[in-house]
Description:
Elements: H1 3-19, H2 23-47, E1 57-60, H3 62-75, H4 82-90, H5 107-110, E2 126-129, E3 134-138, H6 147-164, H7 166-171, H8 183-207, E4 212-213, E5 218-219, H9 223-231, H10 243-261, H11 269-302, H12 308-312, H13 315-318, E6 339-344, H14 347-355, E7 362-371, E8 377-385, H15 388-404, E9 412-418, E10 421-428, H16 433-441, E11 459-465, E12 471-478, H17 483-493, E13 501-504, E14 509-513, E15 519-524, E16 530-535, H18 538-551
Parallel strand pairs: 1-3
Antiparallel strand pairs: 2-3, 4-5, 6-7, 7-8, 8-10, 9-10, 9-11, 11-12, 12-16, 13-14, 14-15, 15-16
Helix pairs in contact: 1-3, 2-6, 2-8, 6-8, 8-10, 8-11, 10-11
Amino acid sequence: MTARALVLGALASLVVACAGAGATARERHSALDEEVRRVSTEVSRLRGRAFGHEVPARTMGCGAASLRLLEIARAEGARCSPDIERAIVALGFIEREPVPAAPGASRASRSDEASGDDASRPCGLAFYDQIRKEVVVVDGRSTPDERAEVLAHELSHALQDQAFDLRARLRGVPRTASGDHDAEELAVNAAINEGEATAIELLYLWKQGAERSWIQGVALEDPLAGAAQVLGVVAPAERARRLDAGLRSVQRGARQAWSEQRRLGSRFYFHALARFQYLAGCSFVAEAYRRGGWELVDRLRASPPTATAQILHPERYFDRLDGAVSVAASDFSPKERAALLYENRLGELGTEIATESEAPGWRGDRYRVLSRPDGATVVEARSLWRSPGAALEFLAHATRWLRSMSLPASSFDVIERRGSAVVLGAGIREDELSAFREANWKSRARDAVSAESSSKNPTLGLRRRGVDGTPTCELRLLEADERSKAEAVLKAHLDRTARGCVDTDGRTWGLRSRPGGGFSWVEERSDGKIVVATGSDRANIDATRAALLQLSPVAVKDAR
Length: 560
């Protein structure tokens, strides 16, 4: 979304608003005020808390709303700059082309995937302006039948603000070295706020007898009523008198909707993060209510979770305080002077999105994006896991994230596990590989990652990047005591008579063609370690083997 698109959208919405001025606009505003008062009363009853004062409401066109949302973001300290855009492109967090809506996607998740001019106006259905202290309903984004549900959500935010001062909590979110809000604590803060508002919104619908929220894509089942109908017995009390049952229904529905609407893959990062705040946040808040009512929900703000892992696994917050381990960035710097574009944490949620895999063993991480003088970018990501096995599981799926990154061709990606720690570098030049490895594993006080540097049986992988992010060569170095893992494949590559053999010395190395295209290489080095590589051609394999010597030097045998 460009600044020009925002301004044009705002002007267009102002023209439409002015064209409709007069008695009709006044009547429309009066009707909105009346509905706000009615829904406010219901929200107050559901939440068990009175509003301190009435909440003003207004309508706004999509262009003006998107412009206002950007103003709010800047006022709250969000960095909106070309540096951020370059960083998220490098990380693969921006979609390169429109993506169809996922099965079961909600109206809310589809509302910003519009076509045509609206594609540049992410304005949502409505929002609570915590600076002006008013609810804004976006024209044409919700139907008259949906208006009360939308208001129930946004008025819940207004009630939160009156009780807890939402801006004060946001100001308390720590900043990273790049000056950005810590993504984990920001996501958790949003999950509590949006989760509570979503719970009230869905409870409002449940009380009205609705079976589903089409806005959130959440089913609102009433098992007692269903069972009574099947068995032909007396129906349970009306829903208005069974709100605890309603919140259980809300929790079940939100959990199911999260599993259906969560979209994995780094290009879906922002979409998944948004649905997490509403759906996983709703389930977490409902769990707090189940354990201690609204009083415990209130206490979440005094002592909030610190990681998305605790929202995804509520027992890590309610049963035992199991937050994140602090992980610092290394002191690696490219040979050319590099600027820090962005630094933050993926968390368990971000790791799952980027690697397209569950990450329950996550304990902590830190990643950063550096910019070279020529504009090329470098990514470093350090993480700590609950066990070496969990670290290996991450290692197996991390290449999915690497493939989505937008980094220079012919640069190298290195990923290494030692014990329960993993270090990943992407966009590294060959003559920087040794310095990268040294900076990331050298012993430093209070560095949880480098504390694992002396662990036995490390795992080292290296890949050379192609133009589109796919590797032209992928290589793994096996330790000498892992020889048994490569015994069969080494034997096959050393057999001159085997089908597909291209070249071999018959003793220590062999090159074979692969049925699907490309080549594979296996080599037993003089230090006993085994190199296993696949590549598009011999040149890329040889270039990656040469780069490996920067990470793991050894006497080189002539393999020509």
